[in-house]
Specification:
By secondary structure, the chain is of the alpha+beta class. The protein contains ten helices and 19 strands. The two termini are 23 Å apart.
């Protein structure tokens, strides 16, 4: 984030000292419980948001070299993004054309062939069929080329986006809706992937993101963990079309406000979270990047992958250990405090015990997130 924008947010925070309501949103919102429980709405979300896309697959640095690959499930469509010999990317439907079995799992590098574990049909990195062993021409009368299906993929600002439902080209700038200025400043293509961990939670995909949209809960839910270090009032935030930037800040930020304005800096004292609908949240911490990726399984089950990236491509053993410990702490807090509570909320909503929830003016990013989802469903697609 450019220093001018950091100081703009600091001015907003300074203006709110003694008058915290100045950071509040313009209105509250009553959120129907059905948004988290209705199978028909969930099916529309998968169709119009996750499959119609675009959706974030990962960062360029995760598939930096020819033969490196990264897999994802986007609205039920299995995708494999593979770096080609010429440096370009191919996004392939990760399913053998014979009987639909997956070809790749997770991430890797040095890929020369993709071989199906079911009947050993083999494909080249560009998705073209290489061989069908031991068939003796048994498939020669099939009137298909049997190459892997391709879907649209685009790469810019260190981000990789795919449109799992079609080959319609992706306009990355239109998708980001203005967030590209900030994201380019982080030089995401110069980050180094350190580790990714994946957990399945019994909650709707939106509840995963809900917990990150506001700091109002910190003083109570996190009173024994991060509350001493973080403020629990209204966050700083900014919309980017359907997406948003949400900034939680440490108590140390108020010391920064005592400095001359041209010497101030926000980021050492803040956590900048970029929500990229429908499936990702990119977070800039003091000295590293975190990426949260969501894969909805059903209306009340979500696979959550959390990755940590070093700020440069050169990662020492000391930095590696430090970042893995940060990931330990992050997943300890969310895994013990945030997400178990979200699972209990989901259970209550599934039981029909509540027909609605309330999103207040002190939670403006939360309000924007859900209004964006509703608007995108009405329009039938994301920008880009």
């Amino acid at each position: 984030m450019r220093i001018e924008r950091q100081r703009m947010f600091l001015r907003q925070l300074e203006d709110s000292v003694g008058a915290p309501q100045r950071l509040f949103g313009t209105h509250s919102r009553v959120q129907p419980a059905a948004a988290y429980t209705d199978p028909d709405r969930y099916a529309a979300e998968l169709r119009d948001l996750f499959r119609a896309g675009p959706a974030l697959v990962g960062l360029s640095t995760e598939v930096a070299t020819p033969g490196s690959y990264l897999t994802a499930d986007l609205g039920g469509v299995p995708i494999a993004v593979v770096r080609q010999a010429d440096g370009s990317l191919r996004a392939l439907v990760n399913a053998c054309r014979h009987r639909g079995a997956p070809l790749l799992d997770g991430r890797g590098d040095g890929l020369r062939r993709m071989t199906c574990g079911y009947h050993a049909w083999t494909y080249r990195p560009d998705g073209s069929l290489h061989s069908r062993p031991l068939t003796d021409g048994a498939f020669d009368d099939v009137g298909l080329d049997c190459n892997l299906h391709h879907v649209a993929v685009a790469e810019r600002y260190g981000l990789i986006l795919a449109r799992p439902g079609s080959t319609e080209p992706i306009d990355v700038d239109a998708f980001l809706s203005g967030a590209q200025d900030d994201l380019a400043a982080y030089r995401l293509d110069r980050c180094a992937h350190v580790e990714t961990r994946t957990t399945t939670w019994r909650m709707n995909w939106k509840l995963v993101l809900d917990t990150f949209t506001e700091s109002y809960h910190i003083r109570t839910l996190h009173r024994e963990s991060i509350a001493p270090a973080f403020q629990s009032g209204c966050t700083l935030w900014e919309p980017f079309g359907p997406h948003l930037l949400n900034i939680g800040y440490r108590t140390s930020v108020f010391d920064e406000l005592t400095r001359p304005e041209d010497e101030r800096s926000l980021l050492p004292h803040a956590t900048a979270q970029y929500f990229l609908l429908p499936n990702a949240m990119l977070c800039h911490q003091v000295d590293h990047i975190e990426l949260w990726r969501l894969e909805p399984v059903d209306v009340h089950t979500t696979i959550v992958s959390t990755s940590v990236f070093a700020a440069s491509l050169e990662v020492s053993e000391r930095t590696d250990r430090y970042l893995r410990r940060n990931l330990d702490l992050l997943l300890d807090v969310t895994g013990r405090e945030d997400f178990p509570l979200m699972e209990r909320i989901q259970s209550t909503l599934d039981a029909g015990a509540l027909t609605e929830m309330v999103h207040g003016r002190i939670e403006p990013a939360l309000v924007h997130f859900h209004e964006s989802v509703d608007r995108l469903l009405a329009e039938g697609r994301l920008p880009g």
